[in-house]
Amino acid sequence: MARRSGRVLRTYPNLLILPLLGGIAGIAFVATLFGALYAGGVYDSGGVALYVALFAIYLVETLVASFFAAALVAATRAVFHGETPTVTDAMRQAWDHKWPLLVWSVIAAVVGVLIQAIESQDNIVAELLAGLFAVAWSVITYFVVPVIVFEDTSISGMFEESARTFKNTWGESIGAMGAINLVTFALVLVGALLGVVTFLVVPSGAGVAVAIVVGLSGIVLGLLIGKSLTGIAKTALYVYATEQTAPEFFEDMDFSKLGGDAGSQASRSGVGSRI
């Protein structure tokens, strides 16, 4: 799955621009807001003001990430339809779904604040419940962005469709996520090792600065590639689940084998029941 997603990325490297823009926008916002909160003493005051600030952070961060993820999904769908994706067209299609993305971001922000509030209870039971809730939430909403881009559905429908799609492809999704996470970790590790090698090779005067630049560049590139592979693979899985067909670049792959026999049977029966 990772190799075939990488094949898409090698053919259309401009897809990397979308997670890059999303990362820059998200970091700029968070850095600005955190600086303002720190200067205003909100962290020290706590209480309602802190949770309002957390809500704002979760909301904008989720909206920015979802917008560029939607653009990546749209661009990937163009590839699967035999078209040449462009950043401008992909962002235009994401903008066309701005209101569902905003609604999704508001709900995700509320859930994020609730999880944070549960975790702040400072007891192991609350932390365990918050962790279980976070995992369940991530599973239910795994395909929310593709649903928003591909389907014209209601607010409740986007969550139902996302959960149903994950249920129908749970083995494949877990297998793909695990493989791509390993690839991302390996790429990040290579980037960090490049920084270490640079530090050992470059003369001591400029070695630290050059090593930091090289290492951070390698790490960022690894994260961008991993983010792009995740978006491509998720789109391919969604197309497979909803259309019962392997998209372009994935024609020679048996999706049903990704999650093992149990996941394959569940996936085939689930997809078949929907067609």
UniProtKB/TrEMBL annotation:
InterPro entries reported in the protein's UniProt record: DUF6159
Organism this protein belongs to: Halapricum hydrolyticum
Keywords: Membrane, Transmembrane, Transmembrane helix
Residue ranges of coiled coil: none
Domain of life: Archaea
Lineage, top ranks: Archaea, Methanobacteriati, Methanobacteriota, Stenosarchaea group, Halobacteria
Residue ranges crossing the lipid bilayer per the database entry: 12-38, 50-80, 101-118, 124-150, 174-200, 206-225
The protein's name in its UniProt record: DUF6159 family protein
